[in-house]
Design goal:
The complex is a heterodimer. The termini of chain A are far apart. Chain A is mainly beta. Chain A is built from two helices and nine strands; from the N terminus they run βαββαββββββ. In chain A, the strands form two sheets. Chain A has a five-stranded antiparallel sheet with strand order 2-3-1-4-5, covered by helices on one side. The N and C termini of chain B lie close together (10 Å). In chain B, helix 1 crosses helix 5. Chain B folds into two domains: 133 residues, Rossmann fold, CATH 3.40.50; 154 residues, Rossmann fold (3-Layer(aba) Sandwich). In chain B, strand 5, helix 6 and strand 6 form a beta-alpha-beta unit. The chains are: A mainly beta, B alpha/beta. At the A-B interface, loops of A face helix 4 of B.
Chain lengths: 151, 307
Amino acid sequence: MSKTLSVSAINNGTVIDHIPAGQALRIIKLLKFSNYKNCVTIGLNLTSKGLGFKDLIKIEDRFLSAEEANEITLFAPLATINIIKNFEVIKKVTTELPKTISNIITCPNEKCITHSEPVASCFNVEQFAKHVMLICNYCEKRFDRDVYTNL
Amino acid sequence: MKNTLYQKDIVSIKDLTRDQILTILKLAEKLKKKPASNLLNNKIIAHCFFEASTRTRLSFETATIKLGGKVIGFADPENISTKKGESLADTIQVINSYSDLIVIRHPKDGAARLAAEISDKPVINAGDGANQHPTQALLDLFTIQECQKKLAGINIALVGDLKYGRTVHSLVEACALFDIRFFLVAPESLTLPPQLWNLLKANNIKFSFHQSLDEIISKIDILYMTRLQRERLDKTEQQAQNSQHILVPALLTKAKANLKILHPLPRVDEIDPTIDKSPFAYYFQQAANAVWLRQALLTLLLNRSLS
């Protein structure tokens, strides 16, 4: 039986699979892939046995650092990240939640000092059961990751 | 014994261990029994009050002067360089070079943490927006221990604005390190933030929510009243003013004999002034304790060892 790929295969680069539906665009913004000059392919709401629906990202000729891979887990805790060379998976990247996230997202608390001073935002990342929470290093407010609608 | 508080920043209760808190309370008790006069000799403490303060500022000043230290700083946020457009970061950088320790109060959440990152001298948070007020929490613990002779096993009711009261947030975090049971009495829109429920759960601290003081008054050892932070309420929360809890003498008829009423002050109208002379009232003693507690803190932050 012939198999059809919803998103075409890449020669060299990174494939981020099993992203919860709706999170791919956040990851694109998080890692600034929209500024990337080579081909970035995004699949949204693809059918998935495990997730029902999923998103997927393929980035040509780009290999993620361990730090970048860990940042992805913030929005896609079960994502699989594979490094591709000559159409073959040569490495499966193991990820873990980052302990901190700096200078990527702004604090949702409008009264936080980071909005009025020249200082990079910084969040500590904590997991309570299935909830990933971000705690601002400055104002100490806790936010569910879903609060970050600006991403 | 090594002083682990030497040169430490006190920005949040989270910065302190249980043992460090007990060390501060112990020294405060010692200084209250036997006042000292020279523990801050030759030390300059900068008091940077970007937001109005009466009790906190004056008790820090009194604590410093009585221990032989000198005070520089400002109490009027209208006449400082940030009004000319200078950043907080630059202001702190400069004051850092003039002083041995910085006490800061600021209307923005997180300002004290930023100041602590910039300054290489110890920074004490004297209140940052709706976030933290750790030295008030420490003096509250000191007062609870003083009037109840213990901390473990105490039943405490927190009443009023539990959402925006930074004093309450710091006190809950401090009490979570001890075996203290909470009764939370507040209008629904001003109850304790869920993040603090999680903290209490994580520390196996019992707590419950109540709408009426009457249903819990017979169970508690400490009644901690707070004022509504009217300046921080949004339009929907302002309706909570109508359901504010006012403490009147009749509510105390079922109180335990050892009950003490605390309040971080300023009081507006949440405690009837006729209660001031009752044996339950302890809020003015609590305010007086601020000097001893802040003396202990300043002493520990600025002296490597104590004889």
